[in-house]
Amino acid sequence: MNIQSCRQIPMAARRVLLAALLVTVAAGTGRAAWAQAVAQPSAGRPLIVFLSDFGTLDDAVAICKGVMKTIAPQNEIIDLTHQVTPFSISEGARMLLRTSQYYPAGTVFVTVIDPGVGTSRKAVVVKTRRGQYFVLPDNGLITPIADRDGLEGMREITNPAWVLAGRGSSTFHGRDIFSPAAAHLARGEDWTQVGPLVATPVRLEVARAAVDAHGIEGMVVALDGPYGNLVTNVSAGDFRKLGYSLGDRISVGLGETRVTVPYARTFGAVRQGEPLLYIDSRGLVSLGINQGNFAQTYHITPPTTLSLTAK
Known about the structure:
Elements: H1 3-7, H2 11-39, E1 48-52, H3 60-71, E2 77-81, H4 89-100, E3 108-112, E4 123-128, E5 133-137, H5 143-149, E6 151-156, H6 173-186, E7 210-212, E8 215-224, E9 229-235, H7 236-240, E10 249-254, E11 257-262, E12 275-279, E13 284-289, H8 294-298, E14 304-309
C-alpha cells in the first residue's frame, strides 16, 4: 500500500489498521523475545528444579534440599512436584518434558524417581543441546527430553568429590548422589568432571496412539491435578484426522466404559456438571467435566485404554 492510497482510507479505518499492525508486531516480538530468553543462560546463579515421588509426609524432600543448600546456598530451588505416582518413570518423564521447555538454559533439573535405587542402574548427569542439565537415574526418565531437545552428552556420577562425603546408603541416592551433584553443577563447576561419558541412555518405551481410517486407539496416561480431567496420548493433530467439528458428539471408549460427549473448546461451553472432550494446554485430547471430576464420576484410573471412532 502506497502513501496516496493510504490517504484515501477514512481516518477511523486507518486507526484500526494501525492497531492491528501494532498487535501483530508486538506478538511477533513477544515470541522472539521468549525464544531468546529460554535459549540464554539465566542471569545470576542457575535455578535448581526438583522433581521426585517422595511425597511430603516425611523429611526426604527437606533433607535433599538441605544437602543442595549446604553446597550451593545462593541457588534457588524450585519444587516441580513431589507427588509423582510412586515408581512411575513414565509420569516423571512426562512432567519433565512439559516443564523444562519453560526454563532457561543452564537450569539444573534434579529428578529422583528411582525404583532401581541401589542396583546396577547408573546415576548420571545429562546435558541437552538447549544447555539444560538433568541429574537423574539412567532409567528412561530422559527419553522424551532427548527426543525433543537432543543430547550434548551424558556422564555417570562417579567422582567422589561430587557426592555426599561419608554417606553410602543403597536406598537414598536422592540425598547421597543426585542432590550434591545437582548443587555442584548449579554453583558452576565443570560438568565434565562428574565422571566418564555414557554412550547411550536407557530408553523408555512410550506408548503411541494408533490412527487409521476407523479411528484412534490410545491411552489415558494421567489425571490433570485435583480436577480429575483425563490426560491422553492423542495429539490434537491426530484427533483432527477423525473429522469432528466443535459441537459434535463423540463416542469414547475408556477401558470397559463407553461415554458420548460433546467436542468443545473449553469447560464453559457446556453446562455445569456436563462432560466434554477438549484439546488441553499440552495440545492433547482430554476429557473433563465442567466444575466436576471426570475420573471419579466414571471410575477411571490411568493407565487405561482409549478409543475414538472416526466421524
